[in-house]
Amino acid sequence: MASITYENVFKYYPGAEHPAITDLNLFVEDKEFLVLVGPSGCGKSTALRMLAGLEEISKGTIKIGDRVVNEIAPKDRDIAMVFQSYALYPHMSVYENMAFALRTRGTPKAEIDRRVREAAQILGIEPYLDRKPKALSGGQRQRVALGRAIVREPKVFLMDEPLSNLDAKLRVATRAELTKLHQRLQTTFVYVTHDQVEAMTMGTRIAVLKDGLLQQLDSPHNLYSTPGNKFVAGFIGSPAMNFFDARIVAEGDALWVDMGAFRVPVPAEHAAVLRQKKVPAEVTFGIRPEDIHDAAYLPKGVTPDAEINVAVDLVERLGAEILVYMIAGEQNFLARVDNRTLVRTGETMRAVLNMQRMHLFDRETEVAYI
Amino acid sequence: MSELPVRGFFKRSRGDSPFARILIHLALILACVITVYPALRVISVSLRPGDRLLSTDLAIIPPDATLGNYVAVLTGAFPSFLWNSLIITVSTAVFGVILAATSAYAFSRWKFPGRGPGLVFLLATQMIPAAMLTVPIYILAVRLGLFDSYRGLVLAYSVSSIPFSIWILKGYYDTIPVDLEEAAMIDGASRITAFVKVILPLSTPALAIVFLFNFMTAWNDYLLARIMLQKEALQTWTIGLTRMQGQFQTQWGQFAAASVIVSIPVMALFLYSSKWLISGLTLGSVKG
Amino acid sequence: MDTDQANKQTSLALILAIAGILVAAGAGVGVFLLAHSAGLNLLVLALALVAGGLAFAATYLAGKAKESVLPGQAGRQSADLAAVLGWLGVIAAGWSLLYRLALMAPDTEVQTLLGLGEVVQTLLLIVAGAAAISGLTYLILGVIFKSRHALPFTLLAPAIVGLCLLVVYPMGYEVRLAFSNMSLRHFKDPTYALAEGWQNFKEVFTEPVLKQVHFFPLFLRTVLWTAVQVPFHVLGGLLLALLLNRPMKLRGLYRALLVIPWALPPIVAILAWRGEFHYEYGFLNIMLRGLGLAAVQWKSNPTANFIAMNIVNIWLGIPFMMVILLGGLQSIPGELYEAAEIDGATWGQQFRKITWPLLQPVLTPAIILGVIWTFNNFNVPFFINENELESSDILVTALFRAAFQYNQYGFAAAFAFVIFFILLGFSIFYINTTGALRGVTESAPATRRRRFSLRLGGSKGGSEK
User: Fold this and answer.
1) How far apart are CA B122 and CA B110, in angstroms?
2) pTM score over 0.80
3) What is the pLDDT of residue C111?
4) Which homologous superfamily is C194-434 in?
């Protein structure tokens, strides 16, 4: 069983004002692909390194399977790690890099050879087995780093931003390969990244961290459609969600979201929830760019209730989609519209908000109501 | 690491002008002449027959050059001096490197109480005037029975290069990212294994330089050898050579020949290690 | 290769290793106890060889066993044990062989081999001592106190002990000497007293240090010596480094030649130069006469002698600076110069704004070392000064003479401390004003952010990503 449990884990650095990690509770299922994601300094790498045994755990316990590993040295935790810098041994060939761990453990030569060649074949690096790392490209080095981890046949794979040193195209290709690798190896993966695209595409579940605190642990779909707070809502999804300071205004039975320059109606089912939760008047309203449409090209299922008039500030044509930077009153926001749109910079446009997918957050706590 | 930056300092985008190039070569040739001339003079004296240091001839290779002096030196008492120096130097150099390699690693990778003061102390040891410790060491050696034997000398040489060696090795280790040791530890290596199998192979330039310096320090030492060794059979070449330029009659030819002979090992080692000289001596700068 | 075979190999290796050690022990005993006759000598030698063979076979077998499947930790440890024992046996056998050979050698060669034997013996003792010290440190710190600093101190322990022996203890002794009146007269029974110390220190400043020269002239001369030398070293080294820092055909040859003053044994270089200062036959005077100028009395004229010392030390000191500065120049990225060229900077501006500032991290430690080494330079002033002119002495040579030629041990000790504190004061001042060592006591950038935080290794520290 290679599940992973963080129980009330804290990490303090001497001299720092705040803990690097505060009360982290996390359960990773066996064979899961868990992504730790968050902005720089959020503690995701620290959490990973505590799991690896490269950082001390100030408080709390970490378990691999049923075993508490707080006091166990990294080499005895049966884990393998891929570093952001790959950390390949420069003076050893690819073969020796991959064989190093097995040699240190006294694995018989025949077995070493079998495992190294098998891993090399999976990763397509067989032709490079005799080369030294400096003779390889970035993508090839990354595979060697992966290969070094695979031959260990560990209980858990740890990855610390392994794709960040690759160029964009390679990153996309490698993402898919990593996902396939995960399915093939049927082993738990714990993956750290700051890139939410990587998180969304690869993870079975994602843990969003900020300032050492776990914001939300959920599947990619749930994080996208029901973010728990404003940070997660703004972090997940690209381009990021639009946020407005707004007021909830009641007009008879209906509720409206008033943003000063314009207002939009709240759909009935959401209104019921808001009333039930006794939402205060001052809120933050959030709507994703992909949920703002050109009124002329509404997708099926979107009602034109929430229509507003906007001025178009800038239009970016990306081929498959069009990004429109729009202004309404004092508010700037972004919409991703159908690529048949004819709007141009400087014109006005009728935009429709898909209020089924609206989000509302508390102004102070930033917790999500909807 | 590439040997030079893509654009050097004087270079224009299309390279130095031919005029500048000639000037530079002339300047360098002049510098080389000044540098090498005294050494050449020694060689020339060593090739003169008999006693003829005393001549006003400035030619490098005298017309009646002969290897007689070399023969005389090598068949006399001198080879035993050479042998003594050799065994002491090689053994202390090897041991000194090992000692410095491990100690510098501790300084580079750990923060322990006394680390800062320790580094400052190492620097301070360089400030000790040479003759300052010789008196206590002399008295200590006499009292401990280390006098007039190799034991004290080997001990002294092994330890005396430690501060400088630690500085150089620490500086070099600092340029090796910690990632490599972390990866090794996750791979199952203990700290020591990671040190031996990963860090040491990557530090060969610095290790070579430290070996070179240790070798040079022990090989060239005069002061310690002079106060510690009295029996002539035990003495090293530094004492032997200085005595040759002796009180009464100096055999200048043989003296010069001996000078040439003792220079060869250390110069050979120096030239052999020179390719590492620049990369190994980081002295705190970023590795180029 | 299967478990059974591996097991058999390990067992065999262990047996061989133990046998080897026993036989080597026998040979070792035989080295000292057996009489010198042809037969007994052969016996000892044969024992040593057999022991060596057995032990070596043991290590070989152990290695082979480890390559195949071994039953878990126990099996592997046995193989390791066999290998270690084997190597011990080899060393013991080798030593017995060498030592007996030395004792057997005819008289003329005895000293040679005995010298080798003694050196090897000393080394083995030192290695064993160092290992013992490290082991003890680890035992105390790691096992008993379970300190997190056990491992670094284990690595440092032998060096610490060595430095204590060679530096700390003698320094302490020197302090004691400074407060005594030890000299040739009072060698066996010197008086150690505060008053003596006070007397010594007073004498340093008031009485002539040697026959005539007093402290302050000596001090000033040493300062002059250093102040003249170091700039020349730096300028010369910088000039050569700048010239060499470009791709050129004979670069390797130039570098090899220019480094010769550093590569030559100082004694050889200095004695060679001393010869060149000879009034009649030294090339300096020959050239001067050739140019129609008067020859100089380099050896007897105080001023000329001082100049001679300076010439020699400049010649000796430039290569070191050149190499350091070359390294520093190469670490400056070329793009900076390209950007400056585009911005229209002349090379003078480029030098002042790019090269010079970026050389400082390399230059400052080099200058500190250069000042210290020059100030303390013994060989050059001592040997160039053939006629032992007191006017050519600097502080350290005067110290040497006071100690070993005039045998004023107590006085010399006090003198030594004065010199030491002068240098210490200067270094502290220099380091503080230039902040030179700021980067040194920190860790490397790579380790600054993440220190090893393992239990038996490090400390917490730094920020995280």
Assistant:
1) 17
2) no
3) 63
4) MetI-like (1.10.3720.10)
